[in-house]
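User: I'm preparing a small set of examples for a lab meeting where we compare how different chains pack in three dimensions. I only have the primary sequence for this one, and I'd like the structure in token form so I can line it up with the others. Please keep the answer compact; I'll paste it straight into my notes.
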Amino acid sequence: MTSPPPPRPDLPRRIVVVGAGLAATQTVAALRERGFDGRLTVLGAETIPPYDRPPLSKHLLDRPGPTWLSEELGVDVRTLADEVRLGSPATALRVGPSGVEIDAGTIVEADVAVVATGARARRVPGWEHALVLHTADDAAALRARLTPGTRLVVIGAGWIGAEVAGVAAAAGVEVTVIEAAPAPLTGALGTQVGARAMPWFAAAGVRLVTDARVVRVEPDAVHLADGERVPADVVLAAVGAVPATDWLGAALPREPDGSLRVDEGYAVLAAPHRVRAVGDVALRRSHRHGWVTGGHWDGALRGPVDLATDLLDPSDGPLDGTSDGTSAAHASDPVPYVFSTQLGHDLTLFGLPRPGDDVVLRDGAGAGGGDWSALWFRPGSPVLEAVLTVDRPRDVGAARRLFAGRDLPRLDRDRAGDVNVPLRDAALA
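Assistant: Understood. Below is the structure token output for the 429-residue chain.
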């Protein structure tokens, strides 16, 4: 009987995945699916198994328990990994010439470290009385305090703030949303498109205050710069998230926001190939979109496949080499993707809207409906940067296919803006 070939000496035999969210779960699955039969260790900061985060806000009140990834994806890290240590947050990383060490109460040694610690809710100094929403424990704490008649003040009208405002108002909570920008979702979509969401708040029974700066948060009120005191029984600060990489210290080169810049194989740039980063912590390079920040669900879902493929079939040198940004030929380049259900509307965003882009609207209201889509084009160009669909499922599939190619799609602007023309038919050859 022929013996199996010995393991390649240049491939890792011990991998530690730091994190236990979607990106970490998918990394474990991808490594095993691609034949990694070495030792796999998972370190999770939370004490419960991996779960999906989007339902925490979208289904805050109608799903009292976490949505387990083992059920959603059919992937259970506890059966795929050799060791899963939950409630063991990593506190330090050391990268040596022949391996890595992770301090998580005890030292874990491995050949490769995959940083998949996700993000944490942004906390503002002086807002200690405000709750945040990023973990299952955060959701449980907020859910316990939202009863009919409760006065909830949400600071921030972004994705999370709008989602929570909608579900809370529908449950009889008295909701006020305070936004520093001129319109909701300005940071993601710009003022022109964000302003189209303003009527949704009043229609859902939510008071929206824009161009408002919060100067103080107290247990029973939020104080604004114009002198208004907004009474509150509960305050939620929904002002974004930042990569959870403080634990790395100076071990890896971090961007000002804490993210880790990676190549298409998710190797951290200017660091040894034995260190990878994926999910919310990664600032990845995309041929199509340039540098893409974390926080996109498809990136956490699909990025680990590229990571595992590159790690187990390296095209950019040995593990003790330094990543210089060499492109991984196999990279799938997932399109940045956001899905939100808020205030009675379904929003889907593909791509990256950029300040200064030309906006073209496909407005179904002109045809007697309330659905519409927005398209962002490079100034004076047919090059499409992003598509937002609002209650238009017919545009969702077309938008996804448009961004499936290596390059950004090119559309006839006039046809793209005609709601009676299928979006796919506006594509230029």
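A couple of notes for your slides: The longest strand covers residues 345-351. The chain is about 20% helix and 25% strand.

User: Perfect, thanks.
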